[in-house]
Known about the structure:
Blueprint: E1 4-10, E2 14-21, E3 26-33, E4 37-38, E5 44-46, H1 48-66, E6 73-80, E7 84-88, E8 106-107, H2 115-123, H3 141-151, H4 153-158, E9 159-164, H5 165-174, H6 181-187, H7 200-205, H8 211-215, E10 227-230, H9 233-239, E11 246-252, H10 253-262, E12 271-276, E13 280-286, E14 296-300, E15 308-314, H11 318-327, H12 336-353, E16 362-364, E17 382-384, H13 392-418, E18 426-430, H14 437-445, E19 450-454, H15 459-472, H16 478-485, E20 489-492, H17 499-522
Parallel strand pairs: 1-6, 6-11, 12-18, 18-19
Antiparallel strand pairs: 1-2, 2-3, 4-5, 5-8, 7-8, 7-9, 10-11, 12-13, 13-15, 14-15, 16-17, 19-20
Helix pairs in contact: 2-3, 10-15, 11-13, 12-13, 13-14, 13-17, 15-16
Domain Carbohydrate kinase FGGY N-terminal: 4-260
Pfam families: FGGY_C (PF02782), FGGY_N (PF00370)
GO molecular function, one term: D-ribulokinase activity
Amino acid sequence: MAAYLCAVDVGTGSARAGILDASGKLLGRAEHPIAMNRSASGHCEHDSEQIWSAVCAAVRDARAGANVAPDEIVGISFDATCSTVFRGRSGEQVSVSVEGDACWDTIVWLDHRALAEADECTATAHEVLKFVGGVMSPEMTTPKLMWVKRHLPQSWARTGQLFDLADFLTHKASGSLARSQCTLTAKWTYLAHEHEAWRPDFFAAVGLADMFEHAALPERASPAGADLGPLTGQAAEQLGLTPVCRVGAGVIDAFAGALGVVGGLPDIDRHMALIAGTSSCVMAMSREPRAASGIWGPYYGAPLPGLWLSEGGQSATGALLDHVIRWHGQGGEPTAETHRRITERIMQLRAIEGLDLAGRLHVLPDFHGNRSPLADPHALGVISGLTLDASFDSLCRLYWRTAVAIALGIRHVLDALNANGYGIDTLHVTGGHTRNPLLMELYADATGCTVVEPLGGDPVLLGTAMAAASAAGLFPSLAQACAGMRQEGRARRPNPAARQRFDRDYRVFVEMHRQRKALDDIA
């Protein structure tokens, strides 16, 4: 009987499922939207049951599209955003919304309600901070738990299970309370490289001494791709699969993308994964720990056993370009057609003005804080060089220079990584940005790196399918699954003629960071 794999990717706005064969070829794909509750205070929540329903619908549709029989799917795994799911002691939903609706039981990864709590974590100067870049982010789990305990004490009292979203999905699928080494190491201050991986003194120092009473956490995490058991009968029925299917320990979505694009490479410390969509995440792996200020990690065994991973990124990239469109009087709703129309006009303007287009317009893209390399969630965006021009062309110029700033932000992260032992010269880009020709060009020209774009598939789903293949026993290990299923890509090399222009822009970019800090110090 043929053996196929199911990979599920839960992003910020949708759940996607793919059916792949053992060579990594994508045979069928489907997507269903997921809801998000945005409150007036800026909080963002998901309904985990609605997410599961969307997952089940996507899996059923993807299998039908692939024309594969249910009992031919032998492995399934999940990736998801690093959102935090709150459940009661009997598994019931626990609200994390100030509006009190019980269905909103999941704090979305991008929710920054816990800024103050993140600062409190950083102020402890605890050893665990050495493995999150020295600064706690409000996007990590600990500050979110602090916030709920402090502001929603009744919800905290009812909480008996806490999950990263990927772990919640493997729990729904298999019934297992195991947690992935990827999720716990990257977001829960779990030190996978140490015998005593949890540090209760850290949680006590931030007022969470009782966390383990509310979380149902294991002493040891399960490596990504570990076999957590078969699908339960109920889950199999909901997903349209069978209990023949094994469930693999999952990963955070960006880590799945890293597996999919660089997981099978031998000289891995020359390569960096750039998973770019609403936000951007960069991931570099090495055989020894390479700590860098403002870079998350190094994380041991997340996602590949025996390797250390450093993670950086930008909190708003695709979301920032959408914001620029909405913000400008000529913009309107940032649909795919709007982006296409702006991009086409930029190409026309560049044919006239070249790379000097809007050369005195400069942007710092930290509109939602600076994730890396400054690790400052309080950082603000800056635009320098505005005029009274309110035409469509002025929108195009601002969009272009914002795209330049996003690419320069990646160069800023690269400089931090390469100053700490990496020799990265190749970027493997996946996500929505591959559909933006401006960004793909800029990632090569503004960083000086070769940019590789995946061909013929979806690297995030591929990375998750690799975990499923490991769990199903199609390969002896996750590392061998990565090597056996990896897909080729198309390389774009930087344009040497653009180097001088973007070197100058980068000097301005760095100086603007310095000047913003000086202004903040005065204020």
